[in-house]
Amino acid sequence: MTSGDKAIVFLVLGLGLFTGYVWRQSVLTQSENEQLTRDLQIQTQARNTAEWLLHGQEQTMQVFSAIRAANRAARLIDENQRNEAKQTISAATAQDDCGDRLVPSAAADELRRLEQYARAPGGHFSAD
Questions:
Q1: If you write DSSP's letter for every residue of the chain in order, what string do you get?
Q2: What superkingdom heads the lineage (predicted)?
């Protein structure tokens, strides 16, 4: 074998080794790319789930805030109605002598029953 033939053999052998190396790096790179793509999909799903949960929590907080505001408004309305009723009764009975007279027992019983009804939770009243 001449030196030219040896050079060609070494060149072909070197080219083969280089091609094998490049091919192996290509396969490794493709494998890494596939793994990175899977990781990205998992992270995207996790982010989407977290955003969905956060959105649900925000909606829940808004609902509770609306309920709290409605309850506050209802308490104010009740208080105003109570004050107006007191003022109306006071004005109507200011010049009347009914405050000095005894309340009939049947009327007192009816007032107690109405008071129990008004204070009963959920508006449920059990007649005693």
A1: --HHHHHHHHHHHHHHHHHHHHHHHHHHHHHHHHHHHHHHHHHHHHHHHHHHHHHHHHHHHHHHHHHHHHHHHHHHHHHHHHHHHHHHHHHHHTT-GGGGSPPPHHHHHHHHHHHHHHHSGGG-----
A2: Bacteria
Cβ pair 72, 66 in contact under 8 A? no
> pTM of this prediction?
0.47
Instruction: List the chain domain ranges.
Output: 1-88
Rounded CA-CA distance 68/78 in Å is: 15
For 100-119, the pLDDT digits (tens) are 778 889 988 998 998 888 88
- Residue 38: how many CA atoms within 13 Å on its side-chain side? 6
Structure tokens at 99: 């405050």
